[in-house]
Amino acid sequence: MKIVLYGRKGHAHTVAYKNFLKSAEVPFEYKDVSVDNEAKEHTKELYDGQVKYPTLFVDDEVYLTPSSDTFNKLMQDLKLKG
Q: Can you give 17-65 as a three-state secondary structure string?
């Protein structure tokens, strides 16, 4: 399973999702759209020219600005516990 999280330092959902993935000891890649130009441009493509976050990629699935409920359900479906 490959997980990539786009977010921004200090953003509440980004921090919460990163902390969960770390506590679940799940390998994931984190890209901060405020410093990673490639991630920022990719985000603009996904959100019609806007920079929004967090964005979660799990294998071939993309979750655009997932709510806490969506994130929690996804983690349950993946059988991950933080």
A: HHHHHHHCCCCCEEEECCCCHHHHHHHHHHCCCCCCCCEEEECCEEEEC
CB 6 within 8 A of CB 54: yes
Query: How many Å apart are CA 58 and CA 49, to the nearest integer?
Result: 22
Pick from 2, 5, 36: nearest CA to 19: 5
Cβ–Cβ contacts within 10 Å for residue 79, how many?
A: 7
- Tell me the whole-structure pTM to 2 decimals: 0.95
Q: Which of 23, 30, 25 is nearest to 6 (CA)?
A: 30
- How many Cβ atoms are within 10 Å of 34's Cβ, its own excluded? 14
Residues 10-69: pLDDT tens digits?
999 999 999 999 999 999 999 999 999 999 999 999 999 999 999 999 999 999 999 999
